[in-house]
Amino acid sequence: MIKKATSSLIPAIKAVFRACVAHMESQGIRQWHEDYPAIENIRQDIERGELYYVGEGGEVWATMTLNEEQDPQYQDIVWNCNDGKILVVHRLASHPEKQGNGFARQLMSFAEEYAYANDYAAIRLDAYEANSRSQHFYTKMGYAKTGYVKFDYQEFRCTAFEKIIL
User: In the list 9, 45, 120, 161, which could disulfide-bond 115, CB 3.0-4.6 Å?
Assistant: First the structure.
């Protein structure tokens, strides 16, 4: 079951991000770093009611943030959907020990149901180009590659993905 996160879960959510950073770095993927996602990102996402998770009893197995905030780099993308509200997925993470259990898929399915129920025209996100697993995951979920964005703190660019909902 997918739930909104509360501030009591901040340490558990940060632990998921730390485990993901360590796991990716062990594979040579420098997508995130020790300071990102930061506690402040987590706190703000929770305060705004935008952070969702899968877990139970104080454990967090996977997490993501949903909102309408598009990074400034998104303005240079030629998107397929140009009308209507846009939902954006940020910081989708599944604890490495829980990967393969379908939690990321559940969160993305939830995002799509949420988008449909709240009249969003499309969902957008970006995924680190050097992370082939995430690239494959979003493609398999039916997201179309629409271009690339580059963030200063990352070595490689990110692929921009979009899925039309309405």
Answer: 120
Instruction: Give the global pTM.
Output: 0.95
Distance spanning both ends of the chain, measured CA to CA: 25
Q: What domains, with CATH codes, occur in the chain?
A: 2-164 (3.40.630.30)
What pLDDT, in 10s, does the model give residues 90-149?
A: 999 999 999 999 999 999 999 999 999 999 999 999 999 999 999 999 999 999 999 999
According to the model, what pLDDT value does residue 166 have? 85
Q: How far apart are CA 14 and CA 41, in angstroms?
A: 10
Which of 127-131's residues contact partners 24+ apart within 8 Å by CB, and which partners? 127/158, 127/159, 127/161, 128/29, 128/31, 128/154, 128/156, 128/158, 128/159, 129/156, 129/157, 129/158, 129/159, 130/28, 130/29, 130/30, 130/31, 130/155, 130/156, 131/24, 131/29, 131/31
